[in-house]
Amino acid sequence: MPFTNLRINEDVPFDRLTELAGVMIAAFQASDLHDDERCIAFVDGADASGVAFHGYPDAASVAADLLTITQAVFASMGRPLDIMGIDDDGIEHFPNPFYNNQTESE
C-alpha cells in the first residue's frame, strides 16, 4: 500500500490514517512503561497507509531503524536481507546482523 501523502516532521495529522497512527503514539507516550524509547506506528487501510513516529531526531534515523526492523523480520523467516549502500566509489556491503547463516566471506 502506498503511504497517504507522506509528510515528514509534521506534528499535526493530515488525514484519518495518520490521526490513527497519532493516537497510537499518544498511547505510547502516556504509558507508565514509556521511558526514553522511540516508537514508529503504522496503520494500513484498504487504499492507503499512515505512519507516525516519536523520539527520532530526523527522518534518516527513522529510515535506519525501519531497515533494521525489516532485516529482523526477514531473518525471523530464515531469509537474509542484505542492505547495500551505494556511494560515489562503488558499492559498500553492510552485513545483516540478524541472519546467522552468513559466512565470513559474505
Question: What key phrases describe this protein's structure?
Answer:
single chain; 106 residues; alpha+beta; 2 domains; two-stranded antiparallel ribbon; two-stranded antiparallel sheet; 2 helices; 4 strands; 21% strand; disordered C terminus
Short account of what is shown:
Helices cover 31% and strands 21% of the residues.
What does this structure look like?
This protein has 106 residues and is of the alpha+beta class. The protein has two domains: 1-55, no CATH class; 60-94, no CATH class. 31% of the residues lie in helices and 21% in strands. It is built from two helices and four strands. The chain has a two-stranded antiparallel ribbon with strand order 1-2. Strand 1 (39-44) and strand 2 form a beta hairpin. It is globular and about 45 Å long. It starts with 15 loop residues before the first helix and ends in a 12-residue tail after the last strand. 7% of the residues are buried.
Q: Per DSSP, what share of the residues sits in E-state strands of 2 or more residues?
A: 15-25%
Count of individual domains: 2
Amount of helix: 25-40%
According to DSSP, the number of beta strands is 4
Shape: globular
Low-confidence stretches: 101-106
Tell me the number of helical segments per DSSP (H or I, 4 or more residues long). Answer: 2
Derived structural class: alpha+beta
| Mean pLDDT over all positions | 76
Order of SSEs: HEEHEE
Largest sheet: 2 strands, antiparallel
Strand order of the largest sheet: 1-2
Report how far the terminal alpha carbons are from each other. Answer: 33 Å
| Whole-angstrom Rg | 17 Å
